[in-house]
Amino acid sequence: MESSRAETIETLLVSVNRLIRTAVQATGTTTSPAVWRTLGILETDQPLRVGELATASRVSQPTMTRLVGGMLDDGLVSRSVDPDDSRGQRIGITDAGRAHLLAWRATLTRTVGPVFADLDDDQWDVLHEASALIATRTRTEIPA
Questions:
Q1: Under 8 Å between Cβ of 23 and 108
Q2: Is 122 helix (H, G, I), strand (E, B) or coil?
Q3: Backbone dihedral angles phi then psi of residue 21, each to the nearest 5 degrees
Q4: Which CATH number do you get for residue 74?
Q5: 65 within a domain of the structure (yes/no)
Q6: Going by DSSP bridges, is the β-strand pair 77-82/48-49 parallel, antiparallel, or unpaired?
Q7: 23-51: per-residue pLDDT in tens?
Q8: Distance CA 128, CA 51 (A)
Q9: What sign does the dihedral 98-28-34-18 (CA atoms) show?
Q10: Which pTM was predicted?
């Protein structure tokens, strides 16, 4: 039973990774996945210091500093003084960053939609229940 559960988790992880990779490739975007990942992190866990963002996004601090610089230039994030340490800065997502992230997710959704177009209502119910369950385990907001 335990190995079956482990295999289920592994299949889920591998399949989701493939699904996302396929969707991203189909969009033709040149935006770094680290930008989307960082905006997604800031959407739920903001504001964060650059080092915290680097750790959460799985990049080095110098890489995150460069990413943040580009996102600041694009108006996707803002920088403010850390109220707990005036030497530090916190990075937060802007309204433009939220809009950019929502548009990106909509593009991914449209791109992936055809993969699931032939599901029947029962299969959609299973997929909805599974996605809701995963969302509760990963702090993802789910629509009603």
A1: yes
A2: helix
A3: -60, -45
A4: 1.10.10.10
A5: yes
A6: unpaired
A7: 888 888 888 888 999 999 999 887 999 99
A8: 35
A9: positive
A10: 0.79
- If phi > 0 it is left, if psi is from -120 to 50 it is alpha, else beta; for residue 75 that is left
* Residue 71 within any structural domain of the chain: yes
DSSP secondary structure code for residue 76 in this structure: S
Distance of CA 65 to the CA centre of its chain: 19
Q: Quickly tell me which residue has 């959407």 as its tokens.
A: 43
Cis peptide, bond prior to residue 143, ω within 30 of zero: no
67 found inside a domain:
yes
Residue 9 tokens, joined: 């988790």
Partner residues linked to 48 by β-bridges: 91
At 72-86, the pLDDT tens digits run 999 999 999 888 888
- Give the whole-angstrom CA distance, residue 98 versus residue 43: 7
Would you state the structure tokens that stand for residue 71, as one six-digit string?
């996102």
Give how many domains the chain has, as a whole number: 1
Inside any domain, residue 58: yes
Domain of 115 in residue numbering reads as 31-138
